TrEMBL record:
It comes from the Bacteria. This is PTS sugar transporter subunit IIC. Keywords: Cell membrane, Membrane, Phosphotransferase system, Sugar transport, Transmembrane, Transmembrane helix, Transport. One of its GO terms (cellular component) is plasma membrane. GO terms for biological process: phosphoenolpyruvate-dependent sugar phosphotransferase system. It comes from Fundidesulfovibrio putealis. Pfam families: EII-Sor. Residues 1-10 have a biased composition (Basic and acidic residues). Residues 1-33 are annotated as: Disordered.
Length: 296
């Protein structure tokens, strides 16, 4: 090993005691008992032991009041705050809360009708799987039609998938309607951008981000609540009229939930972004139609 590398490894981190300078206080490589230096020790050190040495090094550079001497490290509360919220990236996936399957799961807990809840929620989960929010793109709101469909199925007792399909088809426009509501809300909140820029420039005016976020939530929550109440009331009327017309014909149709899931899986297929997959599905649909005519 060159002399300057050996001396650098012996010095270790500045501020460490003499007994920890060799290899930063970490265990040496098990295959190199006589090795020294930061490179050889880091290869054999585990992540846990390295974290222990780093933590001890930071604690030695802190005063009794918890502040660092000549260093801008995070204090204990800030480290805990980061550790807590970093769990949302790996352990708790909050975006799953706005998925149709999650909504159907909680609706099934409260109503006990897991079969219908799973059937309706999985239909909408597959139908709009290809559409997701990215930048300025606002996909159809999937929660509104799911919740409205589940409410109609529960209110009218539509246990048969053929009858529940009427409520689901009638609730499809709600996805586009509430996406439009979200777009209008975003356009309304564009006025807050100037206030945010003024606040960031510290010109003595404008609103801080916390106040802007609170104001945006106080506007969006009642708007969505009122819009959904009116939409659900109209949907109940439409479904009642539609059931009076098509229920005699649909009562004899042997339709099951997998049939609806296959239709909705077109959205899952489009999410693949693979043209050969599209061709395979089209060929399968054509073969199914031809086989239907041949059997007749």
């Amino acid at each position: 090993m060159p002399a300057h590398r050996l001396e650098q490894g012996r010095r270790g981190l500045p501020g460490l005691p003499a007994k920890k300078r060799r290899g930063h206080g970490l265990p040496l490589h098990p295959q190199r008992p006589g090795g020294c230096g930061a490179v050889g020790s880091l290869r054999g050190a585990s992540l846990f032991s390295w974290a222990q040495a780093w933590w001890a090094h930071n604690r030695e550079n802190e005063d009794s009041d918890g502040t660092a001497r000549g260093r801008h490290t995070l204090h204990r509360g800030q480290r805990f705050f980061f550790a807590l919220f970093s769990c949302f990236r790996f352990l708790i996936n909050l975006p799953l809360l706005d998925r149709p399957l999650t909504l159907g799961f909680f609706w099934g807990i409260f109503t006990g009708d897991y079969a219908s809840c799973l059937g309706v929620s999985l239909f909408f989960e597959l139908l709009w799987l290809d559409l997701f929010p990215a930048g300025t793109i606002i996909p159809p709101q999937s929660l509104a039609p799911v919740l409205a469909s589940l409410a109609c199925v529960r209110y009218y007792g539509l246990d048969a998938p053929a009858l529940a399909c009427v409520a689901m088809l009638a609730a499809l426009p709600l996805g586009v309607l509430f996406a439009r509501v979200e777009r209008l809300h975003r356009q309304h909140e564009n006025k807050a951008f100037a206030r945010l820029v003024q606040w960031s420039a510290q010109q003595g005016g404008g609103s801080d981000p916390l106040a802007l976020t609170r104001r945006s939530m106080l506007v969006l929550f009642p708007v969505n609540l009122l819009a959904f109440c009116f939409a659900l009331a109209g949907l109940l009327v439409v479904v009642k009229l539609a059931l009076a017309l098509v229920s005699p014909w649909l009562s004899g149709v042997d339709m099951r939930w997998p049939h609806l899931w296959v239709v909705a899986s077109i959205g899952a297929l489009l999410s693949l972004r693979h043209r050969p997959a599209y061709a395979v599905v089209m060929v399968g649909v054509c073969v199914a139609i031809l086989s239907r005519f041949l059997t007749v």
